Amino acid sequence: MNLWWAIVCVALISFAFKAAGPAVLGDRELPAAARGVIALLAPVLLAGLVVINVAGPRWSGLDWPLLLGLATVTGARLWRAPMLLAIVAGVVVTALTRLAFG
């Protein structure tokens, strides 16, 4: 039951933080630096989750086929390939690497 209280408390605190911004700022604009930081929060969090997922706990379970697939997606996107094509290429490289090296 303590877990549910913790979840409810975290949800209420999160709601309070999200509601405090508009209540305090009103119609004023955020400074450019703050807007830049807020715009980069989602990509940074996503990158962190990807790194944690690929590296494993304590960086001990590095998944090399997945790493090669991510590198393929990155290279394809740098060459201006469409997102769907880049993802398919990454999946194919990951699958072939796992098939070849077990």
Helices and strands, with pairings:
Blueprint (H helix, E strand, L loop, with lengths): L1 H24 L6 H24 L8 H15 L4 H19 L1
Description:
- With about 100 residues, the protein is an all-alpha fold.
- The protein is about 80% helix and about 0% strand.
- The protein contains four helices and no strands.
- The protein has helices at about 1-25, 30-55, 65-80, 85-100.
- The longest helix has 24 residues, at about 1-25.
- It starts with a helix and ends with a helix.
The chain-level mean pLDDT equals 88
Helix content: over 70%
Decide which structural class fits the backbone.
mainly alpha
> What is the number of strand segments?
0
Give the SSE order as H and E letters.
Answer: HHHH
Q: How many helices does DSSP assign?
A: 4
Radius of gyration: 20 Å
The description of the largest β-sheet is:
none
End-to-end separation? 44 Å
In the predicted model, the low-confidence regions spanning at least 5 consecutive residues are: none
Percentage beta strand: under 5%
Shape: flat
Relevant terms:
102 residues; mainly alpha; 4 helices; 80% helix
What does this entry show, briefly?
This protein is an all-alpha fold.
